[in-house]
Fold these 4 entries.
Entry 1:
Amino acid sequence: MLAQTPAINPPKSAAEAPAAAAASKRRTAARRNRAAVWFLAPACAMTLIYVLYPIAYTIYLSFFNWDGMTRPQFVGLANYVELLHAPTFYTALRNNLAWLLAFLLAPPMGLAIALYLNQKVRGMRVVKALFFAPFVLSGVVVGLIFSWFYDPSFGLLSLLLGHGIPVLGDARYVTFGIIFAALWPQTAYCMILFLTGLTAINNDQIEAARMEGAKGWTMLRHVILPQLRPTTFMAFVVSIIGALRSFDLISVMSSGGPYESSTVLAYYAYDQAIKYYRQGYSAAIAVTLFAIMLVYIVYQLRRMLRSER
């Protein structure tokens, strides 16, 4: 008997080969997309549950009168109308503006310290650790340190001046005293951002600028700062957000006093919700603060995108 020869698949035509390759690429792309979706799903779920839902619920709650225990009562825009007629709201808004203007000093000071620390000098690591220390401390610890510093009876400030000044007990000084305390860790944070940015600078451009005779302010303005533009943008955005959501130092150092002279919008919202059980009114304050922050962030993002184009 003759052995049966196995069937041989006919060779694919020239028209079928590109189609098979395209189908294989589509299957590979589909697998990659599914993998990307599975990797992103936990982060998206966390963002939805812990960020987007609280924002939406806070906006919804701002139209109700609710004490946290009884049934909420719909009041429409009454919370916002009351907010616009409350003197404490304008005091908090003015203090937030003072925080905002003062925190604009943090990025330039952080950049100056970062330029000083970005040197290959013996013992510089110890100096970096000393400048980095304020960022590691919590806001409560910073508040306690400066509360002792400002104490008119035994504080270091009274020893330096020769007499005590009740910084935290005087409505004229309390806001600026707390802002000065907050600038300490904020400047350290900006310093860390700029130190990270300085490590990514193109050294070839710096050497070329040195060969052309650039140094000092000219080098900083035309060579270094343009390469630090993303870091500078991040430092200013973080500083502005930190100024608008300032809370912990105020809670530790003054509790919004004396006579609500040092309160800000974030602490005003907390005060109304926790002390007076006005959840809806507190939500209206939080929505107002969020709108102010959102306007600034959108403006800065559009400005950065326009400059990059």
Entry 2:
Amino acid sequence: MDLVARARRGDGEAFRRLTEPHRRELLVHCYRMLGSLQDAEDALQDTLLAAWQGLDGFEERASLRTWLYRIATNRCLNARRSASRRPAVEWNVPDVEPPEPSRLGEVVWLEPCPDALLGPDARYERSESISLAFVTALQVLPPRQVAVLVLRDVLGFHADELAAMLETTVESVTSALKRARAGLQRKLRAAPEPPPAPGSPAEDAVVARFVHAWESADVDDLVSLLTEDVFLSMPPMPFEYEGRAVAARFCASIFTAGRRFDLVPTRANGQPAFGAYLRAPNGVSHGTGLYVLTLTGDRICAMTRFENGVLPRFGLPRSLPSR
């Protein structure tokens, strides 16, 4: 008896063996659509429960993978439509008076995705399809456009497969895809140069300079690494800063308050990232957040700061012992 037949007869282990090869890619799919790893994990659990309960309805005309993507996509569309997103929080950095933000961001529920969840090939793939900029841009497009764009342009499903998944016509899929591509192009900021390859000497050089500047609180050295239109954001706080001058004032406000940090490297969304640990008088450094860098050539064109609740997802401790 094959695994599908056994699972239909209530064999949970058979169902696990059927679905396990697809769990990681389904989680990443849900993350792209929802922008939050926590929400993506919830959507994946809903998907697997729906698949378990609805296995009798799997007619095997399409592959199991396609059937699971159909369920996952519809669960994500329902989540997008529910609008129950986590709200923005107020500025919460003690003793720091930030400059006036350039604007207030919309996608305050954004969370980083550890590269470890992206699979063993993530380091060798171009990072556009999982980058923070791409995932953020998806969040402000209409839900069905997001579904069509991700399923077609990222995952490579054909238009007729998308039409079946979304219970619509090929013409409707084609129209939605055209609008989604145009909307995405408007939202993404064009980088003057591609980022260096992950783990390359060029990337390592930029990262090393950033670590030295940040840990030594050297604003001038830090600013020399930034592009003219550098972009700083810090979800779930909505403050956003655009431009080297205001970014310099923001970083100076952090260091002038006497805050000094130790950085622990990791990777998020195919990009260099760091756990940030605030040094205390007793020598212990306490985790305050996660920084994710977006590179263009040998410069930093964006930095996103997340709160310290994400550190455990990256295998990072809450604090570092005294040196």
Entry 3:
Amino acid sequence: MEITGAEASEQIYLSYRPLMFSLAYRMLGSVMDAEDVVQEAFLYANETNLDHVHNPKAYLCKIVTNRCIDNLRSASKNREVYIGPWLPEPLVTLSTDHQIAPDLAYSHKESLSTAYLLLLQQLSWVERAVFLLREVLQYEYDEIADIVGKSSANCRQIFRRAKNAISLPQEERASETKLPLKSQDVKQMTAVVEQFVQALVSGNIAQLLTIVKSDAILYSDGGGKVKAATNPILGAERIAMFLSGILAKLPEGYHANLMTVNEQTGLVAYVNNQPHNVMTFQLEDGQIKSFYLVVNPDKLKHLEIGQTEA
């Protein structure tokens, strides 16, 4: 049976969409923007007739990378005046649409964690693209050179510079976040988060302080849209007081569930079926080292009931 051009395009779309989304989301830190970029990339590719493209995957990566860079450039001024800490949009795994095939090299779960995505924000746009294509997607330098429009030798240097930049000791970097060198144990993280929730809800501050590292840090992203801490909160006791204060003021109809957020255990909360906040964590030595609380409603729209499985 002969495959028509439309059928071939659909097969390419189904085959490469998870990869394209994986690249775009890591570049942008936005689920909605990544989805838009991927959709636009495939529409553009179809207009140019993919039947005559020798390497559709590399071609699509090039389109997605360039569109991501254009997106970042246009958003740079908004980022400069962003109110409070900026956190990536949480990627909540509710359907197979964004799941990553286990046999592909870009399935490294740690590269989707909030901590990792924040580290990527320290890189320039070209550094981020080269780093992701090489470190996460395992592209050869010749392939990367064709995608980003630079020489293979230049891409090798860019990658080395990018890797060194996000691997520096904590005191030498602007970010407080440590590079997660390996995936966090899912069972351990789930157990710790469950203990944390139990201690917080029961008001057991003593137990809470045994779960949270004394030098822990909490980032709260409200984007100036809703009330949130405009500066990171430092120290286990201050974090406990901050979260206890939030808990005491929660509206009726509030409920939160443990879910897979950025390939790790997180908390997704709703009020009357509308997204309220998402919290993710980073562990260190079996305790919570970092909290990432997203309350900016613009970054939660894709989690609205009825839209999450689109």
Entry 4:
Amino acid sequence: MNVAADGTGAPDGAGTYAGVLFDFSGTLLRIEPAESWLGAVLDEAGVALPPEELAATVRRLEEAGALPGGPSPRSVPGELRELWAHRDRSAEEHRAAYTGLARQVPLPRPGLHEALYERHTTPEAWRPYPDTAEVLGALAERGVPVAVVSNIGWDLRPVFRAHGLDPLVGAYVLSYEHGVQKPDPRLFALGCEKLGLAPEEVLMVGDDARADGGAVALGCGFLQVAHLPLAERPDGLRPVLGRARTGGIA
């Protein structure tokens, strides 16, 4: 298996791959900061909070883990633990899990918790990493097929279209559409099937060693990238180009 001995997913010299599966959040695109997430919703609702109260609310939402793609919860309330564990299996579970976490934080108007959830599903809430288009474009030029395999509860295709990335992605395998979430190998198997390749010919790229690294159990390679703010990861995806075969030829 093409995984470094230290578990980082760095190249180990074991070979290259004919196709690539990418995770979405924290890998190809990054969610907006919690400040702008909450600020956009409050602006839309015509609600203004004093700066100190706004900062405190942002901090509490982050601690609650209420922003999908943002920091993980410091702790999950007991009544949400089972739901949280399976949040990516369906749209209903995903929404209920994240709005449940958000409701741990009081907001000044009814409906704002739901509005926060809706905000994170919009293209405006996401930005590609600086090298995302470059790497996807280079893979397309080489004839290397690409699919996005994501644990998610909503359709991210409009996000890719809005950022001009959709033509560079051949297929999407979204957990909520299949009732299966990473690290279950079945989701990666669907991705390999979409590429028309055996798992041993496919590299999985993601920021989560547990969830995305589950592809290794199927026989895929795995390359881990750091889930960092955009400015702190200008070229984290470029190592993928060293692992991909031109035209799928060894």
